[in-house]
Amino acid sequence: MKIAIAGTGYVGLVTGVVLAHLGHNVTCVDVDEKKVETMRQGISPIYEPGLEELMAANMERLTFTTDYASAYRDAEVIYIGVGTPEKRDGSANLSYVNQVIDQIAATLERDCIVVVKSTVPIGTNDKLEQRLREKLAHPVAVELASNPEFLSQGTAVKDTLHAARIVLGVESQHAEEVMRAVYAGLDQPMVVTNRRSAEMIKYASNDFLALKISYINEIANLCELLGADIQDVARGMGLDPRIGNKFLNAGIGYGGSCFPKDTKALHWVSNYYDRELKTIKAAIEVNDQQKLVLVKKARSYYDSLEGKKVAVLGLTFKPETDDLREAPSLVNIPILLDDGAEISAWDPVGVNNYKRFYPDEITYCDTIEEALRDADLCLIFTEWADVKALEPETFRSLMKNPIVLDGRNCFPVSKFAGSGVVYDSIGRAKVE
Ligand code: UDX
Questions:
Q1: Which residues line ligand 1 (CB under 6 A)?
Q2: Is the pTM of the predicted complex or chain greater than 0.85?
């Protein structure tokens, strides 16, 4: 099939490459000429394991362009994968989606299904369809379908090729048939429902996972006070299939492009309809507090952090991505800097992005050892494999004062017993 994709961020580019892999002819549209040129050379503008390889294998069916008119004109299916960033009041900003709808309306010359992958408030597909039909420059039949994405950064390709489910929100048999044909090459359970339910599945799923994380984080904080171990507690809970063992890792809170935004957006909608989702509100509040746990711990080790050298391991919101959106490091580091700490940071892929926020205030290190040398404290914000592979002896021998505050429970507590390192993690006994 001839498919166009609007937007080449995580969602758009991964979707485009996977659809090309399924045998479709895909044109990816982006406004950024430089980015388009990079992709034409087979280079992915985002760090995503496996993406470049899949791109290279399917280049003959992939076109990258800024010329949206040529891409949309005769496409059988057009995917919208542009961002819906959070507005100041927490609601979703739909201006990029609306802009794409207007461009499609102005250029489309054949019947087409327009698929919304971007996360949009419930009811948006209906409004977008109306907008599109009203503005059509040519007499063609168009219909909107909702097909939310559930890909996680770092495993986006795998998540798309082997998704737990494909959710399709359609309002006609025809739209369902077209969408089934698009995904014919994938053997995944399909939930076919109406558009509003599909839109809600996306928010309800992400917000439930965020809630699960905030819940386990609150339990972890209590475990610390009561002498229980959160990892044993989570294992004991997770073996119950009604609870499940996923997303029960306690830590310094969730970040990223989805959970923070989608919790706030659904909370905003619920308030708008005077039906506040109190559970989601609690998940947001708990997460905001949880992000500060390490800096609070850090302050408890010294009367003042003025002039103290603080090694920071990991800047991104999770491993295997260079994305910093809502990363706990972005909340903690400014506070540490205000406290007068000297930061030496290491991250395998996030440094260039971090430099945009802090070009000079931080010393960026190429190796973990360099960051740890002579440090008075070490804060772990991201569970990169290189961090998890460290031995207590590395901290002990390099740091001036070996105090490790682990926001991601990277090591078994027992590993630090008798090591000469103070090891303080989340929801577990402290090793002194
Ligand atoms: C998420 C959803 O998983 C995905 O389905 C959705 O469509 C987009 O949002 P992503 O943001 O890429 O994906 O990452 P994810 O792996 O879900 O992690 C989000 C945040 O939660 C990270 O900061 C991670 O560290 C944190 N997290 C995750 C925990 O703190 N504990 C856990 O047990 C799991």
A1: 149-153, 206, 209, 213, 247-249, 251, 254-259, 317-318
A2: yes
